[in-house]
Specification:
The chain is mostly helical and 349 residues long. It contains 14 helices and no strands.
Length: 349
């Protein structure tokens, strides 16, 4: 079962006409591609969701995506990739992450957001060339590399680090798990989606989820399945109730579930089960990566999603039942970027 809405539809006029409107559409698609969706409508909803958390975050999201998209255009990246928004989503996350972790009201943060959005475009091309050897997508690995470098190095620069407290957040043994209330559970359902953009508010997650469903029912359903799986796994393992309710424990599960069922693997019962397993694995991996990054503040970003998804995608060709009858194995298809498995776009960098 395929989701036709997930296919990029670039109905723009020739490249030389209506450039401003076309660039805006590409920027909005870049925001939506954070959740694998090349939809300008979804990107607009995402921008509204970020602004609901704070207008500065909405502005940083647009700034980063526009900068990454423009950089790709200036460097001559394939226009089909730019039109689908594939050159904007990592830059969007870099910019929003800079605002969240360094403070949005500083000139240094804005400059770093712009600079990071430029650099992540170059990193994307480099990572894609390396992963193309195994025909694997880059996902948000470029963002993770740049964001980790920024947050780790920021405390060493007085003009960049504006917080009084040191960044270290050394891990402590978890105490007895607190009981989850019904409010915690339904907050977690939406907050897991919002935390993909570093936002803990449940109502922001509700807006994000609405944007995902606007692009495709399969994508929306898998986002819900991933969120429920992340919540259930975190609860079963005894994660603190506050982490579960804020979405910090389960957001990686949302991305993994969407990626493994309907994006890089065809949607179906077997791939849905495979996606649930991956979502649970990513949730269990999150505390380990939090401990590893503790000296720099414990920012895991989307590392659990990236590592889990790459492992599960690399293993997928060994499992013939994860694809439809007559469909080529994932290993024989062109390497794919952060986009659904349906469109026949040729891989860019």
């Amino acid at each position: 079962m395929r989701d036709p809405i997930a296919t990029p539809r670039d109905r723009t006029t020739p490249w030389t006409r209506h450039r401003r409107y076309r660039h805006l559409r590409h920027v909005l698609r870049g925001q939506a591609q954070v959740d694998f969706l090349p939809s300008a409508v979804t990107g607009a909803v995402f921008s509204i969701a970020l602004s609901a958390a704070g207008w500065a975050y909405g502005l940083y999201g647009l700034l980063g995506t526009a900068t990454g998209t423009a950089t790709a255009h200036l460097l001559g990246v394939d226009r089909a990739r730019i039109a689908a928004g594939l050159e904007g989503f990592n830059a969007c996350l870099v910019a929003v992450g800079s605002a969240v972790f360094l403070g949005p009201w500083h000139l240094s943060t804005a400059l770093l957001a712009v600079g990071g959005s430029v650099v992540v475009t170059v990193v994307t091309a480099a990572v894609a060339r390396v992963l193309d050897t195994w025909r694997l997508p880059t996902l948000t690995l470029p963002f993770c590399l740049v964001a980790t470098a920024l947050t780790t190095g920021a405390p060493g620069f007085a003009h960049v680090w504006h917080h009084a407290a040191p960044p270290a957040a050394l891990p402590r043994p978890a105490g007895p798990p607190a009981a989850l209330s019904f409010t915690d559970l339904w907050h977690a359902l939406f907050a897991n989606v919002a935390q993909i953009f570093f936002m803990p508010q449940w109502y922001v997650g509700a807006l994000f989820l609405a944007g995902i469903f606007a692009a495709g029912r399969t994508a929306g359903a898998m986002a819900v399945v991933g969120s429920l799986t992340g919540t259930a796994t975190a609860w079963a393992l005894g994660a603190p109730a506050a982490q579960i309710a804020s979405g910090a424990a389960g957001y990686n599960a949302v991305l993994v579930a969407m990626a493994l069922c309907g994006v890089f693997l065809p949607a179906g019962r077997r791939t849905a089960a495979y996606a649930v397993a991956g979502a649970a694995a990513a949730t269990a991996l999150t505390p380990a990566l939090t401990a590893l990054t503790a000296p720099s503040g414990g920012h895991t970003f989307t590392w659990p999603f990236v590592l889990t998804t790459l492992v599960f995608l690399a293993a997928a060709p060994a499992f013939p039942r994860l694809r439809k009858t007559g469909e080529p194995t994932p290993a024989t298809e062109p390497a794919r970027e952060n986009r659904p498995a349906d469109p026949p776009l040729t891989e860019g960098p």
